[in-house]
């Protein structure tokens, strides 16, 4: 196996990695933010967010198909020019960094408050940094494999959601659009739009190389 082949990911890994990122960013903060933004219509906001991210990911794939072998910086430079392309790339990096920092601090606070309240925050951070650094150093391929493992290993967990359904009442979903359609839309913005778009670009680079080798 060549060095390039070791850095490639399959379509299955691409899909599960995107799903893992969505769950990873949303499991800690999404319920609260959606409830604040859309109230009882939060489930509508989630459907809208899923549709938006799916549409944007398809658009990104089509854009990258027109420019085989290009990096994200090359595409931005081609469409925006040299300077604007570099500025957009800087914003893309800042988005990715802010998303990672937001997720890490959210995870730290949850662990510190609910699991290890007597442990100092810096110690928890050090323990979390070890697996994160190990995964990051190995590149996108290892991260995608880790995402596949976690998704397949936790497939049984959604079944637990059926347990409390016997005590549920569908009437509590009414009335639809209780607040407003605009607030339902903005209930999705805090998560789906802000944090996920850079990931599609990053993962597609390695996914395209996998498709290219299969065609050859």
TrEMBL record:
The chain crosses the membrane at residues 12-30, 42-63, 83-115, 121-141, 146-165, 185-207. Coiled coil: none annotated. Signal peptide: none annotated. It is found in: Membrane. It is a multi-pass membrane protein. The keyword Flavoprotein does not apply. GO terms for cellular component: membrane. The keyword Cell membrane does not apply. InterPro entries: Spore_GerAB. Keywords: Germination, Membrane, Transmembrane, Transmembrane helix, Transport. GO terms for biological process: spore germination. Its main location: membrane. PANTHER family: SPORE GERMINATION PROTEIN A2. Belongs to the amino acid-polyamine-organocation (APC) superfamily. Spore germination protein (SGP) (TC 2.A.3.9) family. This is Uncharacterized protein.
């Amino acid at each position: 196996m060549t060095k390039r082949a070791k850095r490639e990911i399959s379509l299955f890994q691409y899909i599960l990695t995107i799903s893992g990122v969505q769950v990873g960013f949303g499991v800690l903060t999404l319920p609260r933010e959606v409830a604040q933004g859309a109230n009882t219509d939060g489930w509508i906001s989630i459907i809208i967010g899923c549709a938006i991210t799916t549409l944007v990911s398809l658009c990104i794939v089509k854009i990258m198909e027109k420019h085989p072998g290009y990096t994200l910086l090359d595409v931005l430079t081609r469409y925006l020019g040299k300077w604007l392309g570099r500025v957009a790339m800087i914003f893309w990096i800042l988005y990715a960094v802010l998303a990672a920092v937001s997720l890490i601090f959210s995870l730290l606070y949850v662990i510190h408050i609910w699991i290890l309240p007597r442990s100092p925050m810096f110690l928890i951070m050090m323990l979390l940094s070890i697996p994160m650094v190990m995964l990051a150093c190995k590149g996108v391929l290892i991260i995608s494999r880790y995402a596949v493992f976690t998704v397949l290993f936790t497939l049984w967990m959604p079944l637990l959601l059926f347990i409390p359904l016997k005590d549920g009442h569908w009437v509590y979903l009414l009335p639809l659009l209780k607040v407003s359609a605009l607030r339902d839309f903005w209930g999705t913005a805090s998560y789906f739009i802000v944090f996920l778009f850079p990931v599609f670009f990053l993962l597609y680079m390695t996914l395209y190389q996998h498709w290219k080798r299969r065609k050859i």
